[in-house]
Amino acid sequence: MNREAKVGLFVLIAMAVVGYFIMRTTELGKILRREAPPVQHEVRVSDATGIREDTPVRVAGVKVGRVVKLRLDGNEAIAVIGIPGDIKLSKDARVELRSQGILGEKYIALFPGKGEPLAANTAINAVVPPSLDDLTQTMNEIGGNLKAITDNVRASTQRLDGTNRLEAIAANLEEMSKVMLAMLKENRGNVKTTSDEVAQLSQSLGRDIPVMVAEMRKLAESLRSMSDANRPNIDATMANVNAMSEEFRKTSESVAVLAKKVEDGEGSIGKLFNDGTTVDNLNKVLVSAQESLGKVQAFLGQADRLDFNLHVRSEYLAEHSVAKTYFGVTVAPDDSKYYLLEGVSRETDYLPVEIDEIRSQTFDAEGNLLTTTVETRTEEVDDFVFSGQLAYRVMDSLFVRGGLIEGEGGAGFDFYGLQERFRFSMEGYDFNRPGDLSAHAKIDFSYKVDGRIYINAGWDDFLEETLDSAYIGGGIRWKDEDIKTLIGALGSAIRR
């Protein structure tokens, strides 16, 4: 079979395989197989961060559909979800946005409800859980309130001239005692006059006292009879009064000791009232805590936006009866670019080796050539190599990438179709091959069967007739949420 026939046969087989999987997995195939299309419903979301097309829809944790379209309606987002027709929604149906773990992939949790059927063209309002931004804002408000409290305490204990109000109160009491002593000295004469009047009053009382004593005796007899009748109650009351007075005395002594310590600047409260440095340090700690929370939020936000996709695939080269196995990870900071790190295990028996000739010559004492020795050394091709590439989106469905491809410099492009289920790729690398060989060029067709499994076929090294081969293969892709969990744990450690 000549070269053109092999290429034609390969293209026909590849088209047949791709057509079969299109019939089995796409919406067109479902229509041709007369399968019922999914029923679409609108979900109104106040904040659609983390939601995109193909985001899964789950009922009781089981995936039943996906987000078909995402659009903006005023200040809110509308997510159109597609679910099987046998899932009936009621008027009390509700939707919540949830994550698989702290930093896991977002998904839509659907609760169909059990009431009357949901009317057509009725949007379901989604419940959006609090985000890290809300938590950080609350912490900032708490920090601002604490700072305001410390500022008020400091302002209430200091005067405009910088002195302490407690010290001023003590000075005023001392000045008051001095003034009272001076007043007593100045009114000593008035005091003598008052004592004379008291003597006259005592004489008058001497005449009236016998009469008053008689009356008092009668009153005392009456009180004695009353007290004898209520002796138990009076004793209990006096005991309670004595206990209360003793507790009041102890409390007064404790308050006096505490006030003395606060005035002298002893203890935490005393330092807080009297030492401005303590208040300044507390304010600095609060500011530092707010900055740290902002950094942790930025770090976790960046980690939450990263997509980590692992993949494993194998390709069987029919012409050489060998296989290649690829294992790698794709890191996508956003939709405009991604980074690809990949290890490749391959069989290299059919690849050309690089042969180096090492010449050594022997000369006599006079410089005449005696012998020439030629030593041949073979450079074996590595059977395990690495790839590291950077890819940028230049169009809606086209990525251009470059870097290391199987251990050699190269570049290529990827074209996506059928809602990114189909991919056509072409790449070239190893432009300095031994024996004046052309660069290693490769064409690949890939089709995603479902969310993880895909198949591919292509033509490897098609620029070299002696080394080219058609191949067919397949693999699996999946998101590794453990990497995000690890970054989340690192963020928690930073916050501690």
Describe this structure in words.
By secondary structure, the chain is of the alpha+beta class. It folds into three domains: about 40-130, no CATH class; about 145-280, no CATH class; about 305-495, Beta Barrel (Lipocalin), CATH 2.40.128. The protein is about 40% helix and about 35% strand. The protein contains nine helices and 19 strands. It has helices spanning about 5-25, 25-30, 130-155, 165-185, 190-230, 230-265, 265-275, 275-305, 480-495, and strands at about 40-45, 55-60, 60-75, 75-85, 95-100, 105-110, 125, 305-315, 320-335, 335-345, 355-365, 370-380, 385-395, 400-405, 410-415, 420-430, 440-450, 455-460, 470-480. The strands form three sheets. It has a ten-stranded antiparallel beta barrel with strand order 8-9-10-13-14-15-16-17-18-19. A seven-stranded mixed barrel has the order 1-4-3-2-6-5-7. The protein has a two-stranded antiparallel sheet with strand order 11-12. A hairpin with a 4-residue loop joins β8 (about 305-315) and β9 (about 320-335). It is elongated.
Q: Radius of gyration, Cα only, in angstroms? A: 46 Å
Helix content: 40-55%
Q: Which CATH first-tier class of the largest domain would you pick?
A: Mainly Beta
Strand order of the largest sheet: 8-9-10-13-14-15-16-17-18-19
